[in-house]
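Bug: token stream looks shifted between consecutive jobs. Job 1:
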Amino acid sequence: MATPEANLHATIFSAIIPAPFGFMGVRTELNQLTELVYLPPRFQEKAPNDAVSEQTARQIERYFSDPTFQFNLPLKPYGSAFQQKVWQAIARIPCGEVRTYGQIAKHIQSAPRAVGQACGANWFPLIIPCHRVTAAGGLGGFAHHDDETGFHLGVKLFLLRLEGVAEYNRSSQQQVPMW
């Protein structure tokens, strides 16, 4: 059941789409997707209120049924030149594979911490699959969240498992609470 706080925050979204871990919040403006947000189960579904949020909802549903699905949505341009460079490198990581922050940094001639900051600033998770970027020694962080409840790291782990990344399969020793 949605909490009063969740209902208040729901007004900023053009749609709230069910996801296996909770929901995806969709924000649109002027016929462009402006943001995707991972939302916990305390939210409730909200029907798309425009063509772009409807298109986004359909594509998110396709991704969850087939993680190899390629998104094709009108994205609002964001980010610095450096962030764009990181996001382009992340977008080239194939489904079912991961790269470390260090590998991305070496590829674009930067530092791992800077890559991590750019990952966290990603406005379009799933589309720019920052969940495919991990730490050298394990899962790493996700989406600039503290994860005291484990929600965001749980989402990252779920997405890696959905995409079939072997080292994060269900029998993995990696224990992250899902919610």
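Job 2, same session, no restart:
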Amino acid sequence: MKKADEQAVHLKRKIGLLPAVSFIIGTVVGSGIFIAPKGVLMNSGSVGLSLLVWALCGVLSLFGSLCYAELGTSFTKSGGHYTYLLETLGPLPAFLRIWAEFVFIRPAVASYVALAFGRYVVEPFFTPCEAPTVLIRLVSILGVTLVVVVNSLSVNMASRVQVTLTFIKMFALVLIIIPGVMALAKGRTENFQRGFEVDALTLDRLPLAFYNGLYAYGGWFYLNYVTEEVINPNRNIPLAVICSMVTVTVFYVLVNVAYYTIMTPAEILHSDAVAVMFADRALPGLTSVIPFLVALSCLGALNGGFFGVPRMLFVGAREGHWPSIFSMIHIRRHTPLPAVLFLYPLVVLMLMNGEIYNLINFASFSRWFFIALATTGMLVHRYRFPLHPRPFKVPLVIAVTFTVVSFFLVGLSLYSDPWNTGASCALTLTGVPVYYVIVHKNRLPRRCRRVYHYCSKQLQILLEVAQQEVQTY
């Protein structure tokens, strides 16, 4: 019987504690720490306040990851935000989360990570001149294509790539931290002496500083997308998120201290590739190595995103909230192939038209709104079903603090950047009519249903995919 289960088509539990920690760190530490320092400083107005923002973003992300550890051990399905909204607040919010994720959040997130990858690969060859935008975008598309191929071929391969790239990117952060700390120990403190000047601070821009910082921490919830593939999730999910987020917060604050030790705030504000300028100043012998390591770091974040997010679409289709073809798995490779491939053209399209900082603000509103909604659902579920098994239970004060702060950031961002956040909100609401078309497709004309079933069948044959044969939750 066990042998038959092994050969059956299903997603298998292959992610232990080390791959889980690597998966979170490898997804969190991507382009953010090399791009977001400019955005945090620009919107906070001072060195001291920007460091405080980085630390608070780490604490807030840790609080959020603890809330999601409770959700992940309470509800054993994969799918992350979608599953938790479905179980606590109902099908419409859950569907809107999938809709927003795949129409613009994931394409935007993957695009700005890919653009960072392209920039760090291309710019060293053109220094001191400006690199051609077309070439940056082309290299970015090649990076996305490589990641899609890896995640289509094998879960084991994607997991091994993630572990390897995680160690490489942590090595890159250590290379930045060491010369910064050494310079600080030698007395280079001039950039910190007037660190808390608040003349340039405006409250309407402070949420954008947090959005840029939280973007750099984004990814702490990715392990929840693959709960059904985690070995002993009741133990490994809480351990993985705590170890990962404490490590990342310490490293991020130290990296920013290193940046401000070696470079002035004005230099950081005028650089789109902070790590490259840092290498020029502090590591002249490794000027060509640092951009390469940063590019690999971005590739790791892309890989983590393409590994985790398609599982949300997979679970949504399995629940009947998305076309059934996306709930199918490759019969030999055991990867959710249709869900992975669906992301590819959306990311490429966004990548060809996006600009990094606008993409961050554009995606952050809906992402954080639904995260706050999910933790609200967790509190509602606690109240309604106090006896529901919760192998890991986050303290109430942490859950409430995280939810309130998240809603506050979301609300204030409508004032700070009404165009991007308003567009994000409007695009999310366009999912309401789509929900009724997809979920109630039996009400569609018979001809439309025949076309739908014919296309699904042909795609299933072409992609060699089938429905899961073993229940994994």
